[in-house]
Design brief:
alpha+beta; Serine Threonine Protein Phosphatase 5, Tetratricopeptide repeat; Alpha-Beta Plaits; 4 domains; 7-stranded mixed β-sheet; 6-stranded antiparallel β-sheet; 38 helices; 25 strands; 12% strand; hydrolase; tRNA_endonuc-like_dom_sf; manganese; DNA repair; Rad18_UBZ4
Length: 977
């Protein structure tokens, strides 16, 4: 795989079915100094200038390299001009101005209305004002959270119960700290979120919210509320989770009572609903998660007893059941009331707010329907400024659709598509399918195909995939005058039709649409507008392309359990709509590159490379500062268009190197180094630039690039090791006479052990296989484990590479990973903070990390490990693999490694997780010496034809510096007589 391809695939995630900017991207002129094309055979070639020399010739390349080595920038004169399309100020040279103009014209910005002032809605809900936390409260809450928003609201992790029941405001105070002590409330703060004025029947609506100060958190009506006052107050709610119930039959009016379920693996705040008439206390279901998170601490801390009755029986046995509950009595209420009356009033008010919001909940809504509504509601609340009026109305209109209409759209949206036969669409939960389809069509959510006039030219290719093999053969026989195509597959038949009966522009022959419609019948697809807007909503909600609505399902079923953390948001990821549109367009370019590589379309690959090169500018990401206030740029910059284009160009350089177009690859690498001065990939770019220059015979320039790269603070880990070794190799006399200071460090000898084995295969390019001690086939790692367990010294161990180390790091640093840091948690489906792979992770948490590492150094690592395992087992966390290693293995490894070495390793990963999370030694071995002592060893295993990579060498040398016992085990075939 080309270098950078995997990163690009993760960025794209699920490929979009509709690329709205594809046509404009492919047709618009590109102002790029990189002029490449392909010949008739698809081979990459350069366009020659009128003088007959390549635009990126050797001489020009030499001057550019010298410019890089000297640290010079482009000398084009910069000036400020006003864009005639978007009317924004653009600062830069002619190249930057023209690139900006091309982007505006391609997006049609001239047709969009430009808002010149902030609306009242924006003023109310986009405020960035902050208040200082009082010193006494800061001591309770910790030093990490220094500023709190005036308009922060709870976004609950309500994925196991009902849908999101509106926003419940929460300002930091001592009573919030008490909630944390009860482990009963997960606070998700959202600052500056915009509330959507949703019309009609929307379950996310609530009556009114205000920005309250800490002391005014309790409403006036609640100021005198006591435990006695709530006795007999009726609360209307639902029983959910009926599939987990013991009793399937429920009668209207049946008596119930509530019982805490603190050992519930999905929710420690869970409350069971018990049948009062059942002798063996049968469980009827559970209270909604949103209600249980407030009612549970009330029951536990204030010893409240709730009873009630069933008010209605649903049609289906697994549907939610409406009930009424009331507080029957409180034990020792007078004593407990004085304990923390403020906390009691707070919990009771939250309970009432949730109950009030659930009154608008429709019991007929399916789970996937609820989840989709939650996604739309949160996006509209938190990112309203990124949508224009028409888009807001379009998304908001989904809440006014009928149940059948909503269910049908969600069902179609999550299917592959893009076209569907209406005759093949059937869902048991949708009562009137035809009416729902008509409603979606009228609203513009779907586009039907019922007659040949509705078939667009670009749809003929997609609709062909709906036909079966027999139907395709019939069409081919008709078009080919009766010839048989019995041996053709669906893909081959569609290909034949495309070649013979679709023109170059995608338009179909006149007879083809009627033949397709005759066999498929009426078809339907999601409209381009709906596809684009809901794709955007998903992207804004999950912040990546790898997660989608299935994440809700996995969480609902308990397959994936996400960690608990606080979402404290003080800055928007996308400051305005233009940033978002540029980011979306960049992802389109990335997807086009990925698809073109799959189809071996070199011409399209080159086109996308030139588009990416034309978009980046010298004003791209800023240099990282050490101050905390500047670290926001370091981890949110990955959501910028320039960051996406840098991935495209990294892949493009690798593609050109594969095509042996080193001049052009050098040009791209230089552009990346010029534009992205603070990037963890600079080490790779500099290394490849040095290597490519050597390919062209420029050894002096290659050496200069490597030497200057070693002075770059962003060159780390394996890239730094590789550059050091290049300098030593290229810098021999007469090029260089002075030996670098790092020579002795790089040339340090790593202890080696040689093991002989009986080879099963000795084929170059294949992984080596051997016969083990039990004559079973095994790899070199298993053979090494057998050696160390026997004559190697009685070692126990595992073959894990980086896996066990990342698991140990995640468990030991769990509290640090999910501590309260602003802006690093933004969605309920994260498994790590957004800044984990950046320098800001350590800088922002330096005091807490060092304090935690001191505990590990002092010998508390095993205790921390056990506590984390027992508290969070099964919870998803970046790098932690719960199934691969047992707790006993991890305890043995931690105990034998020792606190000082573990502390150094954890600090190293905290400071550079991205650079150092791969390349660790293959084997982790341990053995106990007596009852309490132990030792550990790390071993990199190499087969007969394997060599240490630079990253592996860098790890081994670092581990040696930390005091680890390390060595390389080389497996060789037994000599033949």
């Amino acid at each position: 795989m080309l270098r950078g391809r995997e990163s690009l695939i993760r960025l794209i995630g699920k490929r979009r079915r509709v690329l709205p900017n594809r046509q404009s991207l492919l047709s618009a002129p590109i102002q790029s100094s990189l002029n490449l094309c392909t010949d008739k055979n698809g081979k990459v070639v350069s366009i020659e200038t009128s003088e007959g020399s390549s635009l990126v010739d050797d001489g020009d390349n030499r001057s550019k390299v010298e410019s890089f080595a000297g640290g010079e920038k482009r000398s084009d004169k910069s000036e400020e001009v006003t864009c005639p399309v978007c009317e924004n100020k653009v600062i830069g040279n002619n190249y930057i101005v023209n690139s900006h103009l091309d982007m505006c014209l391609s997006r049609g910005s001239a047709k969009k209305r430009k808002l010149t002032q902030r609306t009242l809605l924006q003023m109310n809900f986009c405020s960035q004002s902050k208040i200082e936390v009082h010193s006494s409260e800061r001591e309770q809450m910790g030093d990490d959270l220094l500023l709190v928003s005036c308009d922060e609201s709870i976004v609950r992790n309500g994925i196991h119960g009902l849908a999101d029941f509106g926003d419940v405001e929460e300002n930091d105070s001592s009573l919030s700290e008490s909630l944390l002590n009860l482990n009963s409330v997960t606070r998700n703060y959202i600052d500056g979120s915009s509330r959507n004025p949703i019309h009609g029947n929307n379950m996310d609506d609530i009556n009114d919210t205000h920005s309250l100060s800490v002391k005014n958190e309790v409403l006036d009506g609640d100021m005198e509320t006591t435990l006695h006052d709530i006795s007999g107050v009726i609360l209307e709610t639902f029983i959910v989770g009926r599939r987990f119930s013991d009793e399937k039959e429920i009668n209207c009016g049946a008596s119930i009572f509530l019982l805490r379920d603190p050992h519930n693996v999905k929710d420690p705040n869970a409350i069971k609903v018990i049948s009062a008439y059942s002798r063996d206390s049968k469980v009827l279901g559970f209270l909604p998660r949103e209600l249980a998170q407030y009612l549970s601490p009330l029951i536990e801390k204030y010893c409240l007893i709730f009873e009630g009755q069933v008010t209605a029986v649903p049609k289906h046995s697994l549907d939610v059941v409406p009930v009424q509950i009331f507080c029957h009595k409180a034990v020792s209420s007078g004593k407990i009331e004085q304990d923390n009356i403020e906390l009691f009033r707070y919990l009771w008010r939250k309970t009432q707010q949730v109950i009030e919001s659930t009154k608008k909940y429709q019991a007929s809504k399916t789970k996937y329907q609820q989840n989709f509504c939650v996604l739309i509601g949160e996006v509209l609340r938190n990112s309203l400024h990124l949508f224009i009026d028409g888009e807001k109305d379009f998304l908001d209109s989904f809440n006014s659709f009928s149940d059948d209409c909503q269910k049908l759209f969600v069902r179609l949206y999550i299917r592959k598509g893009p076209w569907f036969r209406m005759s093949n669409i059937f869902y048991s939960e949708i009562s009137d399918l035809q009416k729902a389809m008509k409603e979606l069509s009228v609203s513009g959510y779907v586009r039907p195909f019922e007659n040949i006039n509705e078939l667009h030219d670009d749809d003929a290719n997609d609709i062909l995939n709906l036909l079966t093999v027999s139907e395709l053969r019939e069409i081919m026989c008709i078009l080919k005058q009766g010839l048989a195509f019995d041996d053709y597959t669906v893909r081959e038949l569609c290909g034949q039709i495309r070649v013979k009966h679709l023109s170059n522009d995608g338009s179909a022959s006149p007879a083809l649409p009627s033949m397709i419609l005759e066999r498929t019948g009426a078809c339907i697809r999601i409209s381009s507008k709906a596809e684009s807007l809901f794709w955007r909503a998903e992207r804004l909600f999950f912040l990546n392309g790898e997660q989608d609505l299935s994440s809700f399902l996995l969480a609902d079923l308990g397959i994936v359990k996400y960690p608990t953390y606080n979402c404290i948001v003080t800055e928007q990821i996308f400051s305005d709509r233009n940033d978002l549109l540029a980011y979306e367009e960049a992802i389109e370019v990335a997807q086009m590159v990925d698809q073109a590589l799959d189809e071996n379309d070199n011409e399209l690959v080159l086109r996308c490379i030139k588009i990416a090169e034309s978009r980046i500018s010298n004003t791209s990401p800023k240099a990282i500062e050490t101050s905390t206030s500047e670290t926001l740029v370091t981890f949110l910059s990955c959501f910028s268009a320039s960051s996406v284009y840098s991935k495209v160009l990294t892949l493009g350089a690798s593609f050109l190197e594969r095509e042996r177009r080193y001049n052009e690859a050098i040009y791209l690498l230089k552009r990346l180094l010029e534009c992205f001065t603070c990037d963890g990939r600079r080490g790779y770019w500099i290394l490849r630039l040095s290597v490519d220059l050597e390919h062209l015979g420029y050894h002096d320039e290659s050496l200069s690039v490597a030497e200057s790269g070693l002075l770059d603070s962003w060159v780390r880990a394996g890239s730094k090791m590789a550059l050091q070794r290049r300098v030593l190799r290229l810098g021999k006399p007469p090029r260089r006479w002075k030996i670098p200071s790092f020579a002795n460090l790089v040339k340090r000898k790593i202890n080696e052990v040689h093991v002989q084995g009986r080879p099963l295969n000795s084929v170059t390019g294949m992984k080596s296989r051997f016969y083990g001690e039990d004559d079973e086939q095994c790899g070199v790692e298993q053979l090494a484990l057998q050696y160390y367990a026997g004559e190697g010294g009685g070692w126990q161990g595992v073959h894990t590479e980086s896996g066990i180390w990342l698991t140990i790091f995640g468990l030991l640093m769990w509290d640090v990973l999910f501590s309260d840091v602003p802006n690093v948690f933004r969605t309920r489906f994260q498994t790590a903070p957004l800044d984990l792979e950046t320098d800001s992770f350590y800088l922002v948490r330096k005091s807490s990390i060092e304090s935690h590492l001191q505990k590990i150094h002092d010998g508390m690592a095993e205790e921390i490990l056990i506590t984390s395992w027992e508290s969070y087992v099964g919870t998803a966390c970046r790098g932690v693999n719960w199934n691969r290693h047992t707790l006993s293995e991890l305890r043995a490894a931690v105990a034998c490694i020792g606190g000082p070495c573990l502390a150094l390793l954890c600090r190293h990963l905290a400071q550079g997780y991205r650079s150092w999370s791969s390349g660790m030694p293959d084997l982790l071995l341990w053995r106990f010496n007596g009852e309490f002592g132990g030792e550990a060893k790390l071993v990199e295993v190499k087969g007969p034809r394997d060599q240490l990579s630079e990253q592996q060498r860098a790890w081994l040398l670092f581990l040696m510096d930390c005091g680890f016992n390390t060595e390389v085990c080389k497996v060789r075939p037994e000599p033949t007589s």
